[in-house]
Amino acid sequence: AQKVTQAQTEISVVEKEDVTLDCVYETRDTTYYLFWYKQPPSGELVFLIRRNSFDEQNEISGRYSWNFQKSTSSFNFTITASQVVDSAVYFCALSDGNNRLAFGKGNQVVVIP
Amino acid sequence: GAVVSQHPSWVICKSGTSVKIECRSLDFQATTMFWYRQFPKQSLMLMATSNEGSKATYEQGVEKDKFLINHASLTLSTLTVTSAHPEDSSFYICSAADLNIYEQYFGPGTRLTVT
């Protein structure tokens, strides 16, 4: 069974600080996809990144960066120089071969101005 | 990116009535759509997988007779909550998969309140 663990529930940071969100996953599949989504108060999910299991390259997109390590089954997400607009719930998710997504419990990020 | 719409965006209904939620892929064909439910301050839980022209596949613990799913065309799936009760109040989110490029797009969600 697919499982995603996001241990930190709520994280508060002062604006301009960096924040790292941990994601640990479990799967028996050799081919799988990992995702991060942002859910602002409006509720609509915003896609941030997709990574397949064969691509362990880290990625940077503006202030966002992701660290994928298959050896530890982790796919961590860092927001650099956080801003108030980054306040949201962030979900890590794992997809099986049929596109079915298993979501972690989410990290509530609060950026304090 | 592709667009998925949901209608209505919010609905209030009385206990015992049924309510239908539509999920549409606006600019691509989706052979597969998914329905998720999210309770306040909780994660998204997959309810069912909807395949065009066939019966939906429900996740364990989801009552198929209560949550009726129909996927009659490549751009439309509907979720009907039958005989709704207050405990069915939740945020329902659909997603549509464009299998040609292995992408899944989420709708904006429907907030259901049963009084």
Query: Count the helices of chain B. How many?
Result: 0
Shape of chain A: globular
Number of E-state strands of chain B: 11
Main sheet of chain B, how many strands, which sense, barrel? Answer: 7 strands, mixed
Radius of gyration of chain A: 14 Å
User: Uncertain runs of chain A with pLDDT below 50, 5 residues or more?
Assistant: none
Low-pLDDT residue intervals, each spanning 5 or more residues of chain B: none
Structural class of chain A: mainly beta
> What is the SS-derived class of chain B?
mainly beta
SSE string of chain A, helix = H, strand = E? EEEEEEEEEEEE
- Counting DSSP E segments of at least 2 residues, the number of strands of chain A comes to 12
**What general form of chain B does the structure show?**
globular
Treating each run of at least 4 consecutive H or I residues as one helix, how many helices of chain A?
A: 0
| Largest sheet geometry of chain A | 6 strands, mixed
Mean pLDDT of chain B: 93
Proportion of strand residues of chain B: over 45%
End-to-end separation of chain A: 41 Å
Topology record:
The complex is a heterodimer of chains A (113) and B (115).
Chain A: E1 3-5, E2 10-14, E3 19-21, E4 24-26, E5 33-39, E6 46-52, E7 59-61, E8 64-69, E9 74-79, E10 88-95, E11 101-103, E12 107-112
Parallel strand pairs in A: 2-12
Antiparallel strand pairs in A: 1-4, 3-9, 5-6, 5-10, 7-8, 8-9, 10-11, 10-12
Chain B: E1 4-7, E2 10-13, E3 19-25, E4 32-38, E5 44-51, E6 57-58, E7 67-73, E8 76-81, E9 90-98, E10 103-106, E11 110-114
Parallel strand pairs in B: 2-11
Antiparallel strand pairs in B: 1-3, 3-8, 4-5, 4-9, 5-6, 7-8, 9-10, 9-11
Question: Can you walk me through this structure?
Answer:
The complex is a heterodimer of chains A (113) and B (115). Chain A is an all-beta fold and 113 residues long. Helix content of chain A is 0%, strand content 53%. Chain A has strands at 3-5, 10-14, 19-21, 24-26, 33-39, 46-52, 59-61, 64-69, 74-79, 88-95, 101-103, 107-112. In chain A, the strands form three sheets. In chain A, strands 2, 5, 6, 10, 11 and 12 form a six-stranded mixed sheet that branches. In chain A, strands 3-9-8-7 form a four-stranded antiparallel sheet, with no helix packed on it. Chain A has a two-stranded antiparallel ribbon with strand order 1-4. In chain A, a hairpin with a 2-residue loop joins strand 7 and strand 8 (64-69). Chain A starts with a strand and ends with a strand. Chain B is an all-beta fold and 115 residues long. In chain B, the strands form two sheets. In chain B, strands 2, 4, 5, 6, 9, 10 and 11 form a seven-stranded mixed sheet that branches. In chain B, strands 1-3-8-7 form a four-stranded antiparallel sheet, with no helix packed on it. Chain B is globular.
